[in-house]
Amino acid sequence: MAWLYLLLAGALEVVWAYSMKQSHGFTRLVPSTITIVAMIASFGLLAAAMRSLPLGTAYTIWTGIGAVGAFVLGIAFLGEQVTPMRILAAVLIVSGLVLMKLSSNA
C-alpha cells in the first residue's frame, strides 16, 4: 500500500506544480486553490508512504515523479522546448528512480 500512496503523492506533486504555474504567482483563485489542496494531499500521502518506506527511497521517488511529470506536462501543454539534453536528463532521472526502487527492501 505504501508504494500506491507514494505514486499518488508523486502524481499530486505534478498536479500542484502545474497548477502553481497556472496560478500566475497565486494571483488566480482556482489554480491557486488546486495548488494548495494538491500540495496538502501530496504531503499527506508522502507521509503515509514514509511509515514503511525508507526516507531516501520515498523522497527520491516522490521528487523524481514530480520532476519528470512536470517536464512532460511542460512539453505537452506549455510549449516548453524539447532538446536532446533535456530528454537525456529525464531518462537519467527515471533510471535513478528505477534503481532506487530496485534497491529498496520495502
From TrEMBL:
Q: Does the keyword Cell inner membrane apply?
A: no
Q: Where in the cell is it found?
A: Cell membrane
Q: How does it sit in the membrane?
A: Multi-pass membrane protein
Q: Cross-referenced InterPro entries, in alphabetical order?
A: EmrE-like (IPR037185), Small_drug/metabolite_transptr (IPR000390), Small_multidrug_res (IPR045324)
Q: Name one molecular function that GO assigns to this entry.
A: transmembrane transporter activity
Q: What is its main location?
A: membrane
One cellular-component annotation, GO: plasma membrane
| Highest taxon of source | Bacteria
Q: What is this protein called?
A: Guanidinium exporter
Say which species the protein is native to. Diaphorobacter ruginosibacter
